């Protein structure tokens, strides 16, 4: 089981890659590591932050996809109706865009640090964009 370290603003998390349920998504994301970007408050998805990826083509379809991820169940939306993005739920979430409800590939699950998810949510909501970095746990 492969794990990733995620540093978002001042918070650190460890996430399990869902290799069995989303092998293609995990493999595609592995090619991007280390992955550095900004995380901001989601606009339509409730208690969730997101990482906009614009027109990045990750070459994926849907696998292990959901519209209702739980807190700490991270999704990669491969694009189509909306731009490519990573959704980072910290509470009650219904994944959506201005086009309506979406589904994204659940490929990471927070296994350490989940008690900090609400604090991360408050930070991105009230203080704005935060740096985020995904790296392999050695």
TrEMBL record:
It comes from the Bacteria. Pfam families: DUF3830. InterPro entries: DUF3830. This is Cyclophilin-like superfamily protein. It comes from Dictyobacter halimunensis. The lineage of its organism: Bacteria, Bacillati, Chloroflexota, Ktedonobacteria, Ktedonobacterales.
